[in-house]
Structure formats: structure tokens, C-alpha cells
Amino acid sequence: MDMHSSSSCSVEQIDQAWVEGAEFIMGDDSTYKEEGPAHSVSVSGFWMDAHEVTNAQFAKFVEETSYITVAERSPDPADWPADVPTEFLQPGSVLFDPPAAGEPVENWWSWVPGTNWRHPDGPESNIAGKDNYPVIHIAFEDAEAYAKWTGRSLPTEAQFELAARNKRQSRYAWDGNKLAPDGHHHANTWQGSFPVENKPEDGHTGLAPVGCFEPNDYGLYDLIGNVWEWTSNWYYPEHNPTDSLNPSGPSQQDSYSSNHGESIARVIKGGSYLCAENYCLRFRPAAREAQDSGLGTSHIGFRTVKN
User: Fold this and answer.
1) From residue 242, how far is each of 23, 248, 255 by CA, in Å?
2) Torsion sign across C-alpha atoms 109, 113, 116, 119
3) Would you call 128 exposed, middle or buried from its count of C-beta atoms within 10 A (0-12, 13-18, 19+)?
4) Integer Cα distance of 296 and 96 in angstroms
5) What is the pLDDT of residues 259-275, one digit of tens each?
6) How far apart are alpha carbons 190 and 279 in whole angstroms?
7) How far is the C-alpha of 252 from the C-alpha of 232, rounded, in Å?
8) HEC states along the chain?
């Protein structure tokens, strides 16, 4: 199923935008436990990509380096149980697969062999005409490799949250505490009852090109919605309030996620086009999620920073 929008959008031709250093309240005590405790942090200024890394940008990296992404590599059988289904031993990635009408609403993800950044909706799909879409099916090490190639790095969780807060301390990254104030959508999210009712009220029913919504006060696009974005932080299900000056989060040894175990999950931020008001609610600057660092999906991308 093609979950990509056909809209064409544009951004100002800038590479990166400056995010002023600031002291702000990071985290949230009112929504999900793992977002707390809310605490004061200070983050130095940095440059950040104006938008998510696109297919065209990633293709240039691959062309110049011959890089092969995790989703394009054959898994090592030694990393899997002996009785694992054979499709999991083929290169591939995870696709959003919404249940059909009348089907049980239990799982909406499917492992699809042959799926990767070049074939984002399955092995028969391609990215022709989608140069300006965020590159997806990118594992953490793929994003990190691209960042190193550019001489940059992935943002810390604190850097991402400072940029996404857009000089505000409100629940959302825009004025007020409503997702779509006065019916105006500021980000590509899910409208309708997830995962069975997908309304295009924001102009999109799936992944959108970069820059379809107005930039924030820093000149940054799509920090909320469209795709989740990798950060450099290892995941732990709460913040450490003593880590307050340019915080970088826990060490790998100290990281933990109840869904992923020890030492493999990184923090992703920003929410995606699959975040709905009846499910997820992570289209907020304070929101965070744990993601297996070796697994890219159809709703995870990234951008880079320069300190």
C-alpha cells in the first residue's frame, strides 16, 4: 500500500538554520511518564538542517560512498532464533500495514523483504519523483554514517527539543495548546480514528514532501510530524534532571527500554504522520520514544546538526 502523498511542497533554499542557545524546561509531567521529570536545561547554540534529509540528499551520499543501508544487507542468522521465519533472514524493513475494514485491530506493522530507502513501499515501489521526500527505512547507523560524511552529527534529544519548542513552553510547537488551532494544521499527522480511518484534513494521508507546512521561528521545517527523527541519545524511560548542561543522556551501558531490552534503543523525537489524537499523542516537542537502533521503518527519518 502506497502511504505517500502526491503533493508537491517546497522549502527556502537554505541548508541549515541557526538555533540560539537557551535555557528551557525540557520534558513534560502531564502526558507520558517517560517524558518526565520536567526540568531546566541549558543548551548551547547550534546549526540544524532546515528540513529532514531527503531521498535526493541521501542518494548523493550513497553515490559518492557506495554505502549500503542496514535494510539492504542480509541479516546474520546467528542473530536470530533457529525457528525464525525465513522472510526475516532476507534484507527488508517494516511497513505500516493498516487493517482492512472488519479485521481485528491488533497489529499494523509488517516485515516486507525487499523494502528499503530505494523501495519505500515494498520491493515493487521506487522513489521516482520523490526526490524531496524524507528518506525512510534508515537505521541509526545509516543516519550516523550520513552525518559523518557531511562533517556533522545527529542532534541530541535536548537540541531537538529546543529547536522543536520554537521559543515556546506550550504543549505544541506553535501558539496555544491545540493541535490544529482554528482548524489550521501545522504538521503532518493522522486525522481520524487510527489506524482504520485516515482523513486528509492536513492535505496528506501519508508521508509528505519536506516543507509542506510553514517553518518555525528558527526557519526549520517539519520538526513535528511527517517522520520521527533519530537523536544521538541512548534511551532511558525518564530524564535525569542533574544532566542539565548540554545534556547528552545516559551511556549505552545505562540505557534501557522495556520493549527493546538493554543497550539497543535510541531516542526518536517529533512524532510522525501516524500519530493521532486517539493514539500516540507524540506530536509534541516533549514527546519521546524508544526505537531499536538497528531498525528503520516507513515513518522514521533524520536530520543533522553542526555544533
Assistant:
1) 14, 11, 16
2) negative
3) exposed
4) 12
5) 766 668 999 999 999 99
6) 9
7) 11
8) CCCECCCCCCCCCCCEEEECCEEEEECCCCCCHHHCCCEEEEECCEEEECCCCEHHHHHHHHHHHCCCCHHHCCCCHHHCCCCCCHHHHCCEEEEECCCCCCCCCCCCEEEEECCECCEECECCCCCCCCCCCECCCCCHHHHHHHHHHHCCECCCHHHHHHHHHCCCCCCCCCCCCCCCHHHCCCCCCCECCCCCCCECCCCCCCECCCCCCCCCCCCCCCCCCCCEEEEEEECCCCCCCCCCECCCCCCCCCCEECCCEECCEEEEECCCCCCECCEECCCCCCCCEEEECCCCECCEECCCEEC
Is the model's pLDDT at 1 over the cut of 80?
no
Q: Are 50 and 219 in contact (CB under 8 A)?
A: yes
Q: Which domains does the chain have, with CATH numbers?
A: 17-307 (3.90.1580.10)
pLDDT mean over 49-75: 97
Q: Say what the pTM is.
A: 0.93
Interatomic CA distance for residues 164 and 147, integer angstroms = 20
What is the reported pLDDT for 56? 97
Say which amino acid occupies 185: H
Residue 138 burial (CB count, 10 A): 28
Give the three cell numbers for residue 121: 513501499
Locate 48 and state its grid cell: 540544524
Provide the terminal-to-terminal Cα distance of the chain, rounded to the nearest Å: 40
- Asked if the bond preceding 134 is cis, omega within 30° of 0, the reply is no
